[in-house]
């Protein structure tokens, strides 16, 4: 029961790699977007806000299909990237990371946005009177004070990315060793006769990873909050 | 030293102020709602005037006719707020050093020591703002503003949030600051007694208008 097979290991490691890359790449974009939504007023802001939340409400298979249309080899963006930069997403693990990044983006952005909104603007003003240019105000005051939210967003995004299924399988299929993550491996195993035990192992591992991520988020947030409140 | 001639509409409230001060401490005096804070924020560049000019130390930082509005962070001012606004994620030492780092100034241990001694904050350096009393916080805020080497120090009711005994604790430091730091100050207060002790010139505000300008004696004439 507790012997993890090489195929399963591959799926687990691939899931971890996909989720880590997706989270790390999405985080800077998430921070920039969260800041825009929290601190700036511009035309089309509610539209942008809605677009960010779209992956949360669309059926994942729709998001996956849209990704395929856009980032597939003949897609508008995908074709250009393949021709000019040699970056291919379709049926590669990088595509899985892209799908996971997109799907987890709303969960990543939301805590960051809330924590940036919670940063006392009077402190930012004080920094400005001390000679800090706007980007340095952000780097030295806003971002450090929003750190608990950034960490929470990253952990939530990671947990979502590691469990993503619908968009990933639609966009990059279910290729063992390349795009078969834990979720798609479980899906394949359930459909295979005698696959139940292996599926159960992966299910347990998923639960452990998800719970672990939530505990980590809580610990990070507590530590960061204590630090920020001058303790 | 400081020349102000501005108008600003803030909702229903209209602010119109014109004065020029060479004094070491210019006191902005008025009841709450008289526009003192709006005026000092305009000098700081946090509020942009609708019309007019502001000149600090010979540099025009606002001139609406010429389209000049130097942003706050390039004005080389210091600002002490009523609520000290220390950075909670930084130690007292790092708070004090913040302005120097942001302005790209070289370290000046002599000046650092002078300011720390002047304000008696040497014992607080390794602590966090969360662990300080209100009076201590305000002294650190003063030190932080001074150490950014401002051309003009703005103080918006720096004693306003403190109780009587704390006020008496800080007041001597402000007097020392006036006499020893060599930085001109604009001091906002609604407390005539406070200004009599500190200010060398008074700008009296009432409902957004300057009603009197002159030596400290205008405080007696006006009230």
Automatic annotation (TrEMBL), chain A:
The ABC transmembrane type-1 domain covers 12-215
Report how it sits in the membrane.
Multi-pass membrane protein
GO CC annotations on file: plasma membrane
Q: Where in the cell is it found?
A: Cell inner membrane; Cell membrane
List the Pfam families hit by this protein, alphabetically: BPD_transp_1
Residue spans crossing the bilayer? 12-38, 50-71, 91-112, 133-159, 198-221
GO molecular function terms listed in the Swiss-Prot or TrEMBL record = molybdate ion transmembrane transporter activity
Keywords of the record, alphabetical order, are: Cell inner membrane, Cell membrane, Membrane, Molybdenum, Transmembrane, Transmembrane helix, Transport
User: Keyword Oxidoreductase, does the record have it?
Assistant: no
Species whose genome carries this gene? Bradyrhizobium uaiense
The name this protein carries in UniProt is Molybdenum transport system permease
Family under the similarity heading: Belongs to the binding-protein-dependent transport system permease family. CysTW subfamily.
Main function: Part of the binding-protein-dependent transport system for molybdenum; probably responsible for the translocation of the substrate across the membrane.
